[in-house]
């Protein structure tokens, strides 16, 4: 930038009408009729210590009124430097003799806080004069004054001054000399801008353990690693076969393009050092999850491949019990086998057993949590092919069929429910007696009664009574209950169920046929007695013996 400062000629006024006789005198020895313009104040002026004082003709350094200061944008580097200001002072005679050389002293002063470069004085010969010579302060010899009057001073340091002597010769018909001096100098500012390529890095982050069919989170991180702002960034994630977007959770931010194969986003601005994050969820159905993610902007392209092996979450649950029937108020064990048959680790495996109201847990394997109507286990982790066997023992207080339900849940996506049914029955206790005719005569009737009572808390199933008849008597086909089977050798009553607290009488009637000791053999069966020998007792009737009566049974 070239700044040109035009300063008016400082006229030197004469106080008298007397003119010089003789040559031009040095400014320090000017006659009394010549006024010397005052010396510009210097930086070390005592009036304002340390301040640079403006001088006549100098461009002020203070801001122009009603103007706004320049503020550089934050993205630019630079500083506002002081502007140099060069002032001129011209000293010359107020009167001079015709056709005689006239000398002028031009002093250029830099009273600013900045150096002025390429300083030129422009002192052309005025109309009616001829330029003779000029001499720069400190130089021994003068030089001819150029036609354009340009005199090179060079660099004028801040606070420095340079004095030039200019000699003119008036023409014969000249009546006065109007000597004009100007100054020009250069003032520039250098700003250095470093050039660099944009730096754009993108990373894709996702779980290294992807489970087939289970949504997993993905995260694209874009970072501007360079020193320039990047605009209009295009980000793509190209999905391979077997990899789709999870539509149940919208990506953030919303893609500008979204189809089965490609997800695209546009980032308008990414400043140096700034990071932008894109989040979305995918679902893998194949054995390997593959995608190609790329970013492009400002001629920069970054392409990367991403691949993760897909695992399977599989859980196998098996229930077992010692038997399908169990007695009430008796410990009944159940077993739960939980096995990870997949290739993915299962987390937080929850096993919960719901119990009917009259069924209470009495014993469990370690790690269980017992509640009023349920028992549960939490397995923090179940690695592939790992299995756990859990045991639960319960008691039921009432008879009947009970469904014991086991619910098993594991993360991710495993949910099972299985039920095992047990028939709970009470524990019957059978007490029985028998009585009948003890003595009789041939031809008399003989009767017998067998009383069976269930004193337990459960029904006695398939209670059966059988009577072996002796040869001394003849069965009269009379018996209760009415359902029985009779042969020449005995009577077998049909099996019946005897509820808890109930009793059943079995009776028969026979005729004494021959004298002797008639021995009746009585047998009792029931399901709860198992495969053991039936209960047995004897009843004896003496025929042709004394008076007739009842005979207690012999055990």
UniProtKB/TrEMBL annotation:
Record has rRNA processing as a keyword: no
Protein name: DUF11 domain-containing protein
Coiled-coil region(s): none
Top-level taxon: Bacteria
Residue ranges, annotated region (Disordered): 29-74
Pfam families, A to Z: DUF11
Assigned keywords, A-Z: Signal
